[in-house]
Amino acid sequence: MVEHRPLTAFLTHLVLILGVIAIALPVWITFVASTHDELRMNQAPLPLWPGEYFLENMKQTLFGSGLSGTESAPVWLMLLNSLAMALMISTGKIAISLLSAFAIVYFKFPFRMGFFWMIFITLMLPVEVRILPTFEVVANLGMLNSYWGLSIPLIASATATFMFRQVFLTVPDELLESARIDGAGPLRFFFDILLPLSRTNIAALFVILFIFGWNQYLWPLLITTDTSMTTIVMSIKQMLEAAEQSPQWNIIMTTALLAMIPPVFVVIAMQKLFVQGLTETDK
Amino acid sequence: MLKRVHFPTSALPYLLVAPQILITLVFFIWPASQAMYQSFLIEDAFGLGTEFVWFENFQILATDHHYLASFQRTAVFSVLVAALSMGFALILAGFAQRVVRGAMFYRTMLIWPYAVAPVLAGALWVFMFNPTLGIFPYFLEFAGITWNHYLNGTQAMALVILAAAWKQVAYNFLFYLAAMQSIPNSVIEAAAIDGAGPARRFWTIIFPLISPTTFFLLVINMVYAFFETFGIIHAVTQGGPGTSTTILVYKVFNDGFVGLDLGGSAAQSVVLMVLVIAMTVVQFRFVERKVAY
Fold this sequence. Notes:
Chain A has helices at residues 6-33, 54-63, 75-106, 112-121, 131-140, 147-151, 158-169, 173-181, 186-197, 199-214, 218-223, 232-242, 249-269, 271-281. By secondary structure, chain A is an all-alpha fold.
């Protein structure tokens, strides 16, 4: 701050605290809803202060049979499905992008630029604009209701490839020269020099991609019909529909809370990597 | 692009790019070309045969007032989402960048909604605005406003805009804050010596200097509002009441998977692809400019 004016300083903190409250309000109300019993959650006005049923709601949500009158997988299974999907998407994206960026930066071979453009095009084809035909391809390959179907169609990534290309281009040429003098082949150079050098970039990208994978909605919604493959994020929609008949808001909001805790925790716990990953991939 | 020092040609680079290229071909290029091909076909009413009709699907779209209305609605939706979330983020970043003590705390507390899935953001807001139980309708009643987004199209639109903007504030805040922190202190100090107060410094120095970021965020927010808000719409309104919140991406899904109008849905997909390509090109041209600057 350039000047010291107590009044402006006070105003600054006031605005920021109001902003923080406005941003946190929806989640606070969700949290409060997860700490009351069903009876209380059906009386207007709804409470704004936590009650005593948090652990009970958690237990019923995680291990119970979901909402009464609906058929669904237990929530702990959905959490596992989401975790598996998020990990497969993020590690898959990182692995194939590292390899293709390595090939494009360190090798001269016919069709190099052709491959590069082919990868670039994926940037322009989000799932939402090609849903029907992609669904048909996955159905024909027999990948409906499987972890492969959930993850593989989403793991081609132009942004990750671009980012690693950028990172590799900043690696000094002398490293490769000396590695070659010492007799290292391409794979040896990749595993012993390039990978350790891009460690933090990989970690930063992993944070972003984990959130991306965990939050997938439309794609899992289309290709899973088997309730045992439901992910936690898509289950919320089914619960909201069921809420019109049996409004068990305490359970619905506990599920919503459980669905957002893992990615939010990742952002807060790995904030530095998260910020790095976000600013690197989108540039 | 290529390293000055590189490995000799062999089969290895092909093996290295193979997984990525294979997935791109099978799940991106092939489906996209299928969408393009299908957009030239019309299926008869019983699904027995298809006819190649060139651009008739597009002509139907161009004269379909439902589609044109959806286009207009998407424009209003995305402009309002971008304006709301960017405006809010700009104000917060403007104040946060002045803070020394507690800066980390504020940043943490303002960026975490980035991690909330759009459909969850929708669920949170639909719960707060539930017409019979929600907190906000209860208080709005005192102001003489009856809230029911299941019946009132304008209110439904307002709700999805709020939910979509809420989730995006975190992202915009982070980029605005980074842009403001990269402005050299000497510029700000020089203005202060010349007698400019905090508000004047913000509008005459900081805001013009971060205009590249504003433009970048505008494109990103438009893409977000066009495509990633599907979950919010699906959870909150399902495009209704009527079609008052059916934005383009929801219409593609609805016409294709619910209405089973394959040709029409494919034609809409192609229109959306053209829109994404246009936005990506704009974004990349801008990135090149920023590197020069």
